[in-house]
Amino acid sequence: MPALDPVVLFFLLGLAAGLARADLRLPGAIYEFLSMVLLLAIGLKGGVELARQSPVELLPQLGAVLLMGIVLPLAAYPVLRWRLARPDAASIAAHYGSVSVGTFAVAVAFLASQGVVYEAHIPVFVVLLEMPAIMVGILLARGMGRQTDWKRLGHEVFLGKGVVLMGGGLLIGWAAGPEGMRPLGGLFFDLFKGFLALFLLEMGLIAASQMASLRRHGAFLVVFGIVMPLLSALVGGWVGWLLGLSVGGTALFATLAASASYIAVPAAMRLAVPEANPTLSLAASLGVTFPFNVLVGVPLYLDLARLIHRLGA
């Protein structure tokens, strides 16, 4: 059995410390800094890769990503609606149609530790997947109505921190190219895993804080938070293979499909669907799905990608 990656051990340390109510917490400014560096690093890396190829060649993959961002929340909604009110079901569906940058970063670090290569332009997909699920979630919650403040919502969706930093990083990396980015590589690329470890320490603490909510709201969210990413990973892995991605690229595509947002979507849902209970969505995405993906899902999705490629060969 392979040893756990050290960054995952940092997450377990935070989770254990949080459950034991230890006096441990990263200062808010540090957590904010780590989030910004990780988002920028992922965007810059994708931008550097984009500079090496024609964007036209990526159009089929970009279209598939947008379609997946629409289909996944539509598939999750009827299941959630079975047990939850319409606003809560729509909000949680949007979380599971979007992506978790933290999970993606863990998957990137895991593939690197395994020596598995992948298409480096995949961070472009991370940026794209933030948006369609939010729009679908809002439409599921209230339909097309006059009461929706589309201007404010558009600002939240397209100018949220995650989209601005990753999108900006993509543009900077694309404009600077590999040679131009070389002087900044020490901060954004060489130290990436160290920043990720500290980020996961804090995420473990936050995940532990959601356990009380899970106990209050029953087993349904726990089961959904595990089964939904597994089914989404099957969809993502299959789509990644159809798009001609490598084994590593397919694994990352499956990971993106299996992850659930806990940064951009909660902010957008608070604005667009204020009657939805954010505790439910965060308890599922951050208290169940994120730990499951970090500890079990990411290695599993790599095995799934290898199996899909073997069966398809």
UniProtKB/TrEMBL annotation:
Keywords: Membrane, Transmembrane, Transmembrane helix. InterPro entries: Sbt_1. The keyword Transmembrane helix applies. It comes from the Bacteria. The chain crosses the membrane at residues 58-80, 92-114, 120-141, 153-175, 187-208, 220-241, 247-268, 280-302. This is Permease.
